[in-house]
UniProtKB/TrEMBL annotation:
Top EC class of this enzyme: hydrolase
Record-given protein name: Ribonuclease
UniProt source species: Sulfurimonas hongkongensis
Residues the record lists as binding a divalent metal cation: D14, E15, D101
Location in the cell: Cytoplasm
GO CC terms, sorted: cytoplasm; ribonuclease H2 complex
Cofactor, how bound (note): Manganese or magnesium. Binds 1 divalent metal ion per monomer in the absence of substrate. May bind a second metal ion after substrate binding.
All residue ranges annotated as the RNase H type-2 domain in the record: 8-189
GO MF term set: metal ion binding; RNA binding; RNA-DNA hybrid ribonuclease activity
SUPFAM superfamilies to which the protein is assigned, alphabetical: Ribonuclease H-like
Cofactor: Mn(2+); Mg(2+)
Family affiliation: Belongs to the RNase HII family.
Length: 189
């Protein structure tokens, strides 16, 4: 007789930047080595709190962050890019149980899913923060290269301001050209 339980640790996985018109998609996997106080869905935290927690998570976890470029998203589609990112996390963080926020594992059989896991499971909350802070830091760096788009105000999302800037200046290198908007259909870039 044995009382040995599966001792594998939980790797929480979440993404940031799935919906923006510009910038990388970021997927993070995170295994917490010690507790981090204050974790929650990154969207429910202030930017200042996310930045603080990002540093705490980095100090208290093993993690892997995948960045997928707009060019890759345009060439291969969002779903395939997410699948590749998930496979990269599984490869780089072996011997874990994997929980991805949402309702699809994009065909990666090792990964379980849970809707709103980023607000329910601390490992997924940590991954959510890692992904969001990485995405936002990157887009703010790009804002300095492309000040006319005012990325610092909308983080690449399809706000009215962003759409107006695209209408005025066209697409730049970090835009996802495969994302179609009715407001831009009449104009080809």
């Amino acid at each position: 007789m044995s009382n040995i339980k599966d001792c594998r640790v939980l790797c929480g996985i979440d993404e940031a930047g799935r919906g923006p018109l510009a910038g990388d998609l970021v997927i993070a996997g995170c295994v917490l080595n010690s507790p981090v106080e204050g974790l929650n869905d990154s969207k429910k935290l202030s930017a200042k709190k996310r930045e603080f927690l990002f540093e705490e998570i980095v100090k208290n976890s093993n993690f892997h962050i995948v960045k997928i470029s707009p060019k890759s998203i345009d060439a291969d589609g969002l779903s395939l890019c997410i699948k590749r990112g998930l496979l990269e996390i599984v490869k780089n963080m072996p011997d874990c149980e994997y929980l991805f926020d949402g309702n699809s594992n994009f065909g990666v059989s090792q990964i379980e899913t849970m809707i709103k896991a980023d607000g329910k499971v601390v490992e997924v909350s940590a991954a959510s923060i890692l992904a969001k802070v990485t995405h936002d830091r990157d887009i703010l760096r790009e804002a300095k290269k492309y000040p006319e788009y005012q990325f610092e105000k909308h983080k690449g999302y399809g706000t009215a301001l962003h759409v107006e800037m695209i209408k005025k200046y066209g697409y730049c290198k970090i835009h996802r050209r495969s994302y179609k908007l009715k407001a831009l259909e009449a104009r080809l870039f």
